[in-house]
Amino acid sequence: MKLLRRKRAASVYSGRDATVYQRGSVVLVSALARTVTGLLIETDPRSRFDEPVITNDLGLSVTAALAAFKLDMPHPDWKADDLPNKPLQKLAGVRSWRAFVQGTRCIGVHQDPDGTVIIQPYKNEGARQGFSPLDELEPFIAPTTDALGAHVLQGLNNAE
Asked: Exposure pattern of 54-68 as b/e (b: 16+ CB <10 Å)?
């Protein structure tokens, strides 16, 4: 299993991150945490939206996920049953990472300390390769949660 990789080096890392997935008509939001080894892993809060997605609600969920970002989390035990992606798979209604990835679009949402948001669309490379970054969208400052939700949906449309 390959988790998301960011372009920013862990030693100079600042800001907050969240991940948003779209599986058919379902949109899933997950907070992220950076482990002591620099890996980004999914963590709570996680939320699910069925279409039609209300942009304000999506923006509120992404804002909560960004606010929950943590640094220096313990590195996960990959042999344990409670892997970081299992709760999101359960929320999506699938049993495996392979089933979760199939047909899924993904974006990363990064918020700099000054409030600037960068949306990073990803290309779905399948269960073994995970998601690889495409070109970032223009940085923006979302004046409202509704605007943030609209930018997130635009980012999902740019994901492959």
From this structure: ebeebbbbbbbbbeb
Interstrand relation of 70-73 and 104-111 (parallel, antiparallel or unpaired): unpaired
Structural domains of the chain, ranges and CATH numbers in brackets:
10-158 (3.40.1590.10)
Residue 16 near residue 60, CB atoms below 8 Å: no
Q: DSSP secondary structure string, 15-39?
A: SEEEEEEEETTEEEEEEEEEETTS-
- Please answer whether residues 48 and 61 qualify as being in contact, where contact means their C-beta atoms are separated by less than 8 angstroms: no
State pLDDT tens for residues 40-70.
888 889 999 998 999 999 999 999 999 999 8
For the stretch 143-159, what's the b/e string if a residue is b when 16 or more beta carbons lie within 10 angstroms of its beta carbon?
Answer: eebbbbbbbbbebbebb
- pLDDT tens readout for residues 93-133: 998 888 988 999 999 999 998 888 999 999 999 888 888 88
Q: Report the first-to-last Cα separation within the chain, whole angstroms.
A: 19
Strand bridging mode 104-111 / 131-133: unpaired
